[in-house]
Amino acid sequence: MTTKSLQADPYADTHDDAALWQRAAAGNKAAFGELFERHAQAVWNHAFRLTGSWSLAEDLTSMTFLTAWRKLPEVTLVRDSALPWLYAVAGNLARTEFRSAGRFTKLLRRIPPTDTIEDHAESVAEKVDGEGRMRVLLDAIAKLPKAERQAVELCLVGEVSTSEAAELLGLEEVSIRSRVSRARARLRRVLGEDLLGETT
C-alpha cells in the first residue's frame, strides 16, 4: 500500500481498529492499508515465534492479512483491537498450512542454513541460532494439550492479555490463567528456565 493510497483516506489514521475495520469491510482499501501498517510487524513477530523461520513468517503474515481481507464482513473485533484476531488466524494457518501432513517439517528443511545474506556472517549466525532455539520451543508447545497450546500461543507467544484471550476463546479469564500456568510448568520441565525465558 503506497503513501499516496493511504492519503486517499484522510481520516484513516485517526480511527481505532474497529472503525477502520468497518470502513475496510465496506470496501475502503485505504482503511485496510492502515490496519496493515499498524499491525504487520506485530503479526510477523508472532508468525516468527510460531514457525521459527524468518521466511515462513513472511508467508504467514501475508496469508493472515489475505484472510483478514476476505473475512472483514464476518468478523467482530475483540475490544476494538485487531491483533488478538490476527494472532488467532496466524496460529490456525501455521497449524493447518505448515504443519499438516508433515508440510511444516518439509518446509523447514528447505530453509538455507545461512539464509540469503552472504556478506553478514555474524548476523546470519544469530538468525540461524535464534531459529534453532525457537524450533525447540515450538516442538515443546506443539506437544501441549490443545487447550493449553491455544492459551500459550495467544498469551505467551503473542503477548495477548488474558482478558482478550478469554474473549477470543469464549472462556473466563481464570481459565486462561490456569491453562497458561499449567503450560508454563510443563514447558519448564522440558526446556528449563533459560530457553523458556528467552523465547516467551
Characterization of this structure:
With 200 residues, this protein is an all-alpha fold. 74% of the residues lie in helices and 0% in strands. It is built from ten helices and no strands. The chain has helices at residues 3-7, 17-25, 29-51, 54-71, 83-99, 103-109, 121-142, 146-157, 162-169, 173-199. 34% of the residues are buried. Residues 1-14 and 100-128 have low confidence and may be disordered.
Tell me which oligomeric state these chains represent. single chain
Q: What is the ordering of alpha helices and beta strands? A: HHHHHHHHHH
Secondary structure tally, helices: 10
Distance between the termini: 32 Å
Shape: globular
Tell me the total number of β-strands: 0
Average pLDDT, rounded to a whole number, is 75
- Give the uncertain stretches in residue-range form: 1-14, 100-128
The percentage helix is over 70%
What is the CA-atom radius of gyration, in angstroms? 18 Å
Secondary structure category:
mainly alpha
Estimated share of beta-strand residues: under 5%
Major sheet details: none
